Amino acid sequence: IIAYVWQDFGYNLVIFIAALQGIPHDIRDAAQIDGASGWQQFRRIT
Asked: Which residue of 5, 17, 18, 33 sits 20 to 30 Å from the alpha carbon of 43, by its own alpha carbon?
């Protein structure tokens, strides 16, 4: 199981980062103006 996770970790990370970069900056800016912390932005927007 560990070998499988290690093998697919890079691919899954690339997909995850691509999804994060696809979020419009306007949404993150609005959340920041509303007072959301970085962690709250990560949890609630993504």
From this structure: 5
Residue 23, number of CB atoms within 10 A of its CB: 12
Take residue 15 and report the two structure tokens written for it.
């997909």
- pLDDT tens across 7-45, in order? 889 999 999 999 999 999 999 999 999 999 999 998 998
Helix 38-45, helix 25-33: angle, nearest 10? 130
Among candidate residues 46, 39, 41, the one with its CA nearest the CA of residue 16: 46
Backbone torsions φ then ψ of 18, nearest 5 degrees: -60, -40
The full set of domain ranges for the chain reads 2-45
Q: The pTM is what?
A: 0.59
